[in-house]
Design brief:
79% helix, mainly alpha, 0% strand
Length: 323
């Protein structure tokens, strides 16, 4: 089965999206473990940005090397196909630099529960922003219903934790801004993937975004404010690999599918985050997580059902016109 066939097939979409969101969900507990071992405090923004910068620079380099190795025997045409510097910089600025610049600061001012709920809004911004890129993408009643179920699922995680606060301060605003840039960046990556192979595009924009994060943080804390041993490097390597694999898979899913069909899967990120935090950090997990997952999965099924119905209707119209 070719790559395009896999990422267009329903089973391929489900498996790929679950892998990507599970990897992203595992990032938070690993980051917390790494911060604790490195002695990075909640208000050490420069050290947090530097750690993120190293993570995404390494992730980008890994993708660039992998893409080169994969395409080495396919001729020079595919390897030379590159996005212009201006458009690449725009993508790196939005999808990596601004998204994670705001995310790391926002998490230090907000609770984990509120952060999880707001991270789920990335799917909403993704579905809304695609309207400015592709007018054919529409927010149907079934898509809106799926979104509402997804948000209810994330809220259920908060209820299960017993701390579903409705306060909205600087931390929440920054996290909302991060979700906005994440959604817009995903749609922009889908658009730009028409001009450059996904792995090359993702790798170059992540490396550039990581370098920008390093450039911002070095004047604040220096290039090496913490000593990294073998264990710390393994944390950094894992976070880099999960970023490379997660974004590589997700951007490929986005390239071959309607945004409305796949956006719902982003609601799985905080669900996996809670489950994996319970396993890795020993945080208590209640039965509400099962309810949350059920609501998110229901939303995914509804959205995919709406896409299936739309496809059937479109084919019926096309057959009628031909006859």
């Amino acid at each position: 089965m070719k790559i395009e066939q896999w990422f267009r097939h329903p089973a391929g979409i489900v498996v790929s999206a679950v892998v990507a969101t599970m990897l992203w969900g595992s990032a938070m507990p690993i980051i917390k473990i790494g911060y604790e071992d490195l002695g990075i405090g909640a208000a050490d923004y420069g050290a947090q940005w530097l750690f993120a910068g190293y993570r995404f620079t390494l992730a980008g380099l890994l993708l660039i090397i992998f893409h080169y190795l994969v395409t080495r025997g396919r001729g020079k045409t595919e390897q030379r196909k590159k996005l212009g510097k201006g458009r690449l910089s725009r993508l790196a600025l939005i999808q990596t630099f601004l998204q994670y610049l705001l995310l790391y600061v926002g998490l230090s001012y907000s609770t984990g529960i509120q952060g999880s709920i707001i991270v789920g809004s990335t799917s909403l911004f993704q579905m809304l922003s695609v309207r400015f890129v592709n007018s054919a993408e529409r927010l149907t009643v079934m898509k809106i219903t799926g979104l509402l179920l997804g948000f209810l699922g994330i809220a259920a995680v908060g209820i299960g934790k017993g701390d579903l606060s409705l306060s909205f301060g600087w931390g929440e605003l920054l996290l909302l801004g991060s979700a906005f840039f994440g959604g817009v960046g995903n749609v922009l990556a889908k658009q730009e993937s028409r001009h450059e192979p996904v792995l090359s595009l993702t790798g170059r924009q992540m490396a550039l975004g990581g370098i920008l994060l390093i450039a911002v943080s070095v004047p604040m804390v220096g290039a090496a404010p913490f000593a990294i041993n073998g264990t710390h490097f393994m944390y950094l390597l894992y976070l880099s690999v999960l970023s490379a694999v997660g974004f590589g898979i997700w951007n490929t899913i986005m390239k071959y599918n309607d945004v409305g069909r796949v956006s719902m899967y982003l609601f799985l990120i905080p669900v996996f985050g809670v489950i994996l935090s319970s396993i890795l950090l020993g945080e208590q997990m209640s039965g509400w997580v099962g309810i949350s997952l059920s609501l998110v999965v229901s939303g995914i099924l509804i959205v995919n059902r709406s896409v299936t119905v739309k496809t059937v209707v479109s084919r019926a119209k096309a057959d009628a016109q031909q006859s």
